[in-house]
TrEMBL record:
<dbReference type="InterPro" id="IPR002683">
    <property type="entry name" value="PsbP_C"/>
</dbReference>
<dbReference type="GO" id="GO:0005509">
    <property type="term" value="F:calcium ion binding"/>
</dbReference>
<protein>
    <recommendedName>
        <fullName>PsbP C-terminal domain-containing protein</fullName>
    </recommendedName>
</protein>
<dbReference type="GO" id="GO:0009654">
    <property type="term" value="C:photosystem II oxygen evolving complex"/>
</dbReference>
<feature type="domain" description="PsbP C-terminal">
    <location>
        <begin position="89"/>
        <end position="236"/>
    </location>
</feature>
<dbReference type="Pfam" id="PF01789">
    <property type="entry name" value="PsbP"/>
</dbReference>
<dbReference type="GO" id="GO:0019898">
    <property type="term" value="C:extrinsic component of membrane"/>
</dbReference>
<dbReference type="InterPro" id="IPR016123">
    <property type="entry name" value="Mog1/PsbP_a/b/a-sand"/>
</dbReference>
<dbReference type="GO" id="GO:0015979">
    <property type="term" value="P:photosynthesis"/>
</dbReference>
Amino acid sequence: MVSLQNSPSVHRTSLFLNSFPQKHSTLPCCRRAGISFLVKAEQAASSSTGSLSQDRPGRRQVLAIGAVAPGIFLVNQNSKSFAAESKKGYLSVTDKKDGYSFVYPFGWQEVVVEGQDKVFKDVIEPLETVSVNVIPTSKQDIRELGSAQEIAETLIKKVLAPPSQKTKLIEAAEHDVDGKAYYTFEFIAKAPNYTRHALSTVSIGNGKFYTLTTGANERRWEKMKDKLHTIVDSFQLFNV
């Protein structure tokens, strides 16, 4: 297990999802130790063994908006988080404990991020990631909390980007899969030295609120957008 060293992070000790617009009801407060939302990936590749890749100027960017940890570790690809290739160019993940599945691009590596259920990332482009967060809720349907637009705006402002970043919601939509409602939205988060273009999907099932977020540097959006949409579109919940 190889550590990503020198990765300072901004921590938020708790996530109060009851800051959502109170159209229908208040989303329960999420308390999960160590949940935080930003990781700067400063890859210290000082040796040929146990290193990732040499950090070039401008590469010290945010690892993931929506995922933070004081310690990040690469996971051995033989771990149970990895599954058989589901379609050309992608691998599938099925979490039988929490009841969800999705695909991610072949070549991305799993990292352990405190407060996140799953995180996969490209080791060369630190903004190209996918993360899944799972928290308990008493609600039965995402629509109980408000519209796709309302939920997207609140998540972007309160959870998926730090207050210092300028954000913009591009679009938000609702869709059903096997009778279950999902909200999917696209947004941009601007930091002083980079812009992240991201996609998220949220849903409720099994007494849990699920958030999957993926994205890339804005300069690579046109190249990566089809892959990122494939990730988001593949996310599904199942009963456990």
